Automatic annotation (TrEMBL):
The keyword Signal applies. Gene3D superfamilies: 3.10.450.360. Keywords: Signal. Residues 1-21 form the signal peptide. Residues 50-142 form the Putative beta-lactamase-inhibitor-like PepSY-like domain. This is Putative beta-lactamase-inhibitor-like PepSY-like domain-containing protein. InterPro entries: PepSY-like. It comes from the Bacteria. The keyword Nucleotide-binding does not apply.
Amino acid sequence: MKKFNIWTVALLLIISVSTFANTPPGNIQSTFKKMYPKANDIAWSQDDGYYCANFVMNEFTKNVWFNAQGQWAMTQTDLVSLDRLSPAVYNAFVSGSYASWVVDNVTMVEFPKWQAIIVIKVGQDNVDIKYQLFYTPQGVLLKTRNVSYLHDIFGPSTFFLN
C-alpha cells in the first residue's frame, strides 16, 4: 500500500509539473487579458524564448507571442483561404507567378510597430515543394520563402524578432 501511495504522489507531481510548465508569468497573462479579454480555452506554449497563447476568437485561430518582459511581439491569425484577403492582396496573388499553385493556408501577422503582413502558403500537387509568400496589406510582395523541408515554419524568428 505504501508503494502505491508513493507512485500515486509521483504521478500527480509529474502531471502537475507538465500542466504548469508552459503557464506564463503574471505580467504576460495580464498583457494578454488586456488585449483579449474575452478569450477562452487558451493553450500556452513556449517558442524560441517567447510565450505563445493559442485560442479561437470570432471563428479564427490565433497565436499571440509575448516576450519574457510581457510585451506583445506578434499575433498570427489563421485566415484559412483567399476569400478573407483584401482586394489588393488577392489581386496581387492571382496576377503573380504563384497563382496556379495550390493555396495551403493564408495567415495575417500583426506587430506592435510594423504594418501587418499577409502570408500565403502555396504548394504544388504531387510535389513536395512549399513556399510562403509575404505581402503588405497594399498587395506588395515583400519576399518568398522556401519552406519545403522546415518543420516549424512560422514564429517570431521568421520575422527576426529574436
